[in-house]
C-alpha cells in the first residue's frame, strides 16, 4: 500500500513531525510504501502532517484513493495507526471484489 506524506510548511511546529512519521513507520512495519507526496501521483492513502492545529498544507492537487488523514497534533498518533489499518482492510475488500 502506497501512503503519501505531505508536510505543512513548518512555520509553527509544536512537535517533531519527521520523528512522528518515523515512529508511525516503525509501529505499522515497513511493509507500507511511505513516500513524500507529489502532484500527479496517486496514493492509496494520504497523510497530511501539520505542525499545529491549522494544518495548512495544500494537498489539493494530490490524488488519493481513500480520504486523507490530517494530523494536527502528536496526540493523533494512535488514530493514525487505526486509520492505516482501516484503509488496509478496505483495500483488501476492494481487491477481493475485483477477483
What descriptive keywords fit this protein?
99 residues, 4-stranded parallel beta sheet, two-stranded parallel ribbon, 6 strands, 22% strand, globular
What does this structure look like?
- This protein is of the alpha/beta class.
- It contains two helices and six strands.
- The protein has one domain.
- The chain has helices spanning 17-28, 77-98, and strands at 2-7, 33-36, 42-43, 45-49, 63-64, 69-71.
- Helix 1 (17-28) links the parallel strand 1 (2-7) and strand 2.
- The chain is globular, with a radius of gyration of 13 Å.
- The mean pLDDT is 91.
> Which spans have pLDDT < 50 for at least 5 consecutive residues?
none
Number of domains: 1
Instruction: Characterize the biggest β-sheet.
Output: 4 strands, parallel
Total number of strands: 6
Helix-strand string: EHEEEEEH
Distance between the termini: 18 Å
Oligomer: single chain
What structural category characterises the helix and strand content?
Answer: alpha/beta
How much helicity do the residues have? 25-40%
How are the strands ordered across the major sheet? 2-1-4-6
Overall average residue pLDDT: 91
Q: Tell me the fraction of residues in β-strands, as a range.
A: 15-25%
Shape call: globular
Give me the number of helical elements: 2
Question: What's the gyration radius in Å?
Answer: 13 Å
Topology:
Layout: E1 2-7, H1 17-28, E2 33-36, E3 42-43, E4 45-49, E5 63-64, E6 69-71, H2 77-98
Parallel strand pairs: 1-2, 1-4, 3-5, 4-6
Helix pairs in contact: 1-2
Amino acid at each position: 500500500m502506497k501512503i503519501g506524506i505531505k508536510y505543512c510548511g513548518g512555520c509553527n511546529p509544536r512537535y517533531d513531525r519527521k520523528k512522528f512519521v518515523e515512529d508511525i513507520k516503525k509501529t505499522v512495519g515497513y511493509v507500507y510504501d511511505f513516500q513524500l507526496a507529489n502532484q500527479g501521483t496517486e496514493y492509496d492513502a494520504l497523510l497530511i502532517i501539520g505542525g499545529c492545529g491549522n494544518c495548512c498544507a495544500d494537498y489539493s492537487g494530490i490524488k488519493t484513493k481513500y480520504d486523507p488523514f490530517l494530523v494536527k497534533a502528536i496526540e493523533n498518533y494512535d488514530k493514525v495507526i487505526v486509520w492505516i489499518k482501516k484503509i488496509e482492510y478496505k483495500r483488501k475488500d476492494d481487491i477481493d471484489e475485483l477477483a
